Amino acid sequence: MSASGLHVVFGAGQVGAALAARLSESDIPVRVVSRRRPPALVEGVDWRAADVSDPEAAADAAKGASVIYQCLNAPYTQWPARFPPLQRAVLTTAERTDALLVSLENVYGYGPTGAAPMTEDRPLAATTVKGATRAAMTQELLAAAAAGRVQIAIGRAADFFGAGVTASALGQRVFANAVAGRPVDFLGNPELPHTYSYVPDIAAGLLTLGTDARAAGQVWHLPGPETVSTRALLDLVADQLGHPVGIRNMPKLALRAVGLFSPLMRGLAEMQYQFEEPFTLDTSKYESTFAVAGTALSTAISHTLTWYRHQTRAT
């Protein structure tokens, strides 16, 4: 684990792009691998085109890597079929290049928590299709590490938000609607505490996992803004916008009915339990080990709103 070797980021989405920029700012040689060239790359970041499902192409794109970051994702409606092969290809590449594999995960694998805070030692007890998929992918990584085939570090985050994040629970239908003065769409109970992860914090956390030897071989919950209720978060949004932010909530039965005809809504309905009980990601292990906390919620909201305002003016 070294900041002097080449760090290769598989995936140029919202986290992959932010991580590549963060690595470059830290003067770490970085290469991004994706099927299509990202619309904007930070100066100094190398880019290679590769279809990761082709083992030879993936290994060639990662040649010389000392650290590999798995930041790929699959279309939400095709998760169970398409996501595991993507991760398997990156795992195989890390094995072939003898690189540390830092894998970004969400928290679907835990399943319902019964309102208990999620810690890294919580069993993977998913009750949904997507959750079971996520848990099986984690077990595959852990089994490869236990067999001595690869060295890994796993970083987990909750629902993303931040500049450029549109397809998430706090994405287009929340921040964009709020900026435009429209009610925000929310699926669940906004009065309950809910952890949201800020993309720049996720990127910073993954960088730490890839450069600090203490991270290897473990699972880490990446730090982020303080956990409050979604209602309290939206109150902060309203304060910064200077106008009220209303909430438009789709009833659970209506969501499930729409899900009969819409794969996307069916997938959202499956994961709605996360918004129907307190949902708290405990990041104290990371914060106490590396002495780093996440961005203050008010600051993260301010930066996110600035980006959405700019997008509104641009259109």
Which secondary structure elements does this structure contain, and how are they paired or packed?
Blueprint: E1 6-10, H1 14-25, E2 30-34, E3 46-49, H2 55-61, E4 65-70, H3 79-97, E5 100-105, H4 129-146, E6 152-156, E7 159-161, H5 172-179, E8 184-186, E9 193-194, E10 196-198, H6 199-211, E11 219-221, E12 228-229, H7 230-241, E13 247-249, H8 252-259, H9 263-270, H10 284-290, H11 297-314
Parallel strand pairs: 1-2, 1-4, 2-3, 4-5, 5-6, 6-11, 7-10, 8-13
Antiparallel strand pairs: 9-12
Helix pairs in contact: 1-6, 3-4, 7-11, 8-9
State mean pLDDT (0 to 100 scale). Answer: 92
The percent of residues in helical segments reads 40-55%
Give the low-confidence spans. Answer: none
Shape: globular
- Major sheet summary line: 7 strands, parallel
Instruction: Give the spatial strand order of the biggest sheet.
Output: 3-2-1-4-5-6-11
Radius of gyration: 19 Å
What is the tally of helical segments? 11
Structural class per helix/strand content? alpha/beta
Distance from N terminus to C terminus (CA atoms, Å) equals 44 Å
**Quaternary organisation of the protein chains:** single chain
Order of helices and strands: EHEEHEHEHEEHEEEHEEHEHHHH
Notes on the protein architecture:
This protein has 315 residues and is an alpha/beta fold. It is 41% helix and 16% strand. The protein has eleven helices and 13 strands. The protein has helices spanning 14-25, 55-61, 79-97, 129-146, 172-179, 199-211, 230-241, 252-259, 263-270, 284-290, 297-314; strands spanning 6-10, 30-34, 46-49, 65-70, 100-105, 152-156, 159-161, 184-186, 193-194, 196-198, 219-221, 228-229, 247-249. The strands form four sheets. It has a seven-stranded parallel beta sheet with strand order 3-2-1-4-5-6-11, with helices on both faces. The protein has a two-stranded parallel ribbon with strand order 7-10. Strand 4 (65-70), helix 3 (79-97) and strand 5 (100-105) form a beta-alpha-beta unit. Helix 3 packs parallel to helix 4 (129-146), helix 7 crosses helix 11 and helix 8 packs across helix 9 (263-270). The longest helix has 19 residues, at 79-97. It is globular. The mean pLDDT is 92.
